[in-house]
Model the fold of this input.
Amino acid sequence: MTVNRFNLGVVIFLFLITNVVVAQDSRVDYNKPKKYEIAGITTSGIKYLDINTIIMISGLNIGDQIQIPSEKISQAIKKLWKQGLAENIKIEIAKIEGDKIYLNIDMTERPRLRSAIFTGARKSEISTLNSDIGFRRGEVVTNYLLSRAKRVIKKHYVDKGFLNCEVNIRQEQDTTMENSVYLRVNIHKNKRVKIYKINIAGNDQVSDHKVRSFLKETKEKGALTPLKGLNDLLLDVYSTTLRLDFDGFIDSATNYVHENFKFRIFKGSKMIKNNYEDDKALIIGKYNSLGYRDAKIVKDSIYSVDDGLINVNITVDEGPKYYFRKISWIGNTIYSSEDLGRILGIKRGDTYNKERLNKGLNYDPNSGMDVSSLYMDNGYLFFYANPVEVLIENDSIDIEIRINEGKQARINKVTLTGNTRTNDHVAMREIRTRPGQLFNRQAIIRTQRELSQLRYFNAESITPDVQPDPVNNTADIEYQVEETSSDQIELSGGYGYGRIMGSLGLSFNNFSLRGIFKKEMWRPIPSGDGQKLALRFQTYGKGYFNYSVSFTEPWFGGKKPNSLTVSFYHSSYSNANYYSKDHENYYEFVTDGFTLGFGKRLRWPDDYFTLYQSAKFLLYKLQNYSVFRFGTGSGRYNNISYSITLGRNSTSAPIYPRYGSDMSLSLELSPPYSLFNKKDYNTIADEAEREDEKFKWVEYYKIKFKSAWYFELMDKLVLSTRMQFGMLGAYNSKDIGTTPFGRFYVGGDGLSAGYNMDGREIIAMRGYDNEVLPAYNPNSTENNLGGTVYTKYTLELRYPLSLNPSSTIYALAFLEAGNSWIDFSTYDPFDVYRSAGFGLRVFMPMFGFLGLDWAYGYDKIPGEPEANGSHFHFSLNKSID
Done:
């Protein structure tokens, strides 16, 4: 406003000066205005601006009739001034010839911008500010440009909590270029303004700390002042204990914690005015949800209490608390009022809550059942319910819900947009809405989940666009997706078991086998058909290497979601670095494996269930491998098994699930050779040969159960609870016992470093060294034989720092417990080793999950005094889960 008044004053001043110039010209009689024809217009003081443009802006044209003196001159000056291109603008009479007049526009050009130099800001901030302001080299430095730059900079820092930010912009002459200046932008952010105290007044029914909790972004400065009020708390404890008033004690303790332990992990205490205004609306919304329908904020104020600290005062008028009384339904013909009332779930006498009413009518994401779902899942797309307060009497409100059911709508067209790499048929086969079907909202929600589970699209941006046609009672549905990379590469080096090991892994999760011979499908490899091809190679040199390859077709046959998986594995471990193969001290352990698997989606008990079956053949070849725990150390051991896994996965997203569960129960069986080969192993005199013979054909059964549950406690804050159990059993425990192959080893980060040649399963357990949680045999001198039974429990709290599909990051804190046992007779699910800690997970499509955790193991490991305590763990692709 100040700038506008200044500009107006300048215009008036120039108008007066112009008239004086004209009046003082001896050729003009000021008392007798006279009309002239403009015969010529010249300019002076202009070096860089286009002369014709200046004359055009002024609105004065050769041949125009103009009265001298007149307002037309002042209007021309005003037009030129508005452009901001020059200052000290004057229009003078050059000469007069009869009734012809010649004018001259004299002006001083404004300088042009060479560059802007920022001080007091970080490099990343400067880049953002330059972009937001839009500084361009060579543009005219106008007052508007300078004021806009100040405004943008201040807003940038005020939004970050620097309410006292100061910005000064100074022009400095560029000596290397005429009519050019530098803008030196000096920024003094000063201290970030934090909220010291939020004072609540007028709240008789809702406590101060609860009202403060209604504020989502506006929070008090975190503080730890446990001694404050401690004396009062102790007095409360004493008096309430004497009175046996336990409710009063809980209230006192709760208030004490809220007032004195103000720690927050994810929210700061900065004051951002826009957020504050939104938070005030949240207070009213929360009051409304508690039944205080008439609640309002009477007044509020913000004032400084110290350098960089402010207080916020909020005064509320709660008003009376209301309750639901009578709820009646009008217009419903498909479902009875009793059925609708049961779905709504609101009873007479319940606290009046408009938010609850709207959720029960329109969409309740927690229960998944509401009146709108009841109708829309049955095709009634054009249904709507309008709740009206028909009577307010004392503290009770009568509601009339007016329903328009409409007609059932059918789906007309279903399209997919945004899939630039994934072929249409791969995504379309996951879509649960088909042309001709009745409209079904639940099918749309399920489709969003299925598309996100593919991991080819950004789960946060999958959008169904429903385009209703009420004339024809149809709807078109367009699913808008955003492609994200799904292929992964692992190129790493690590140290394990006294060796430096290198790994190379490639996982193509949207592969196309048929596209190998089609040039147009190479992007840069054949992709788009949803198949999976994984290759991995690992070595530390001549003594060890392994490689594996697997291929999965998720829709084998192309008509049903039946998956086919084929994989091959080979590893070789030896001391070939020191000895040749024919040397007497040479040893070697070689494993070859082949697996054929078939998976199927089930429709019962519901269509979240899957059934996976596989046949596996493993061949172990040992030569002089005496470090193994049985036999001569040489020979061939065969492992043929069949496994079946029943799973159910209803998680909301594959990367950062917020709700749902993931469970699996598996059984793996080998043929019971010893029950029908009629061999008497006790007749073999040599102990080592007997061991070789017992395990030549490995026999066992293995049962495993895993479960994970996810609960969104508040916006994006997720609680994950997980449990695992595994048991390796024997058919003939008397004569053969439990196989030494495929046992459970608990502890560490879950990374095997490639040395699990004996088929061992590595179970992560944070806070302890790798594979140290004991499975002792009281009849053996060996410390860790590997468990035949294990269990693990995890409680984890997660919060995302970024949900960007190119880099999903979340922090976590956890409690964990687990153990392994040598056999089921010693199994005790409560005899566990405990740990706690925190960590970070980063998911990048190219590399998968990367994790870093710090954990503290609380319990000592017998014989391993350094195995527990403080540990850092690095994990790859959820190896710790």
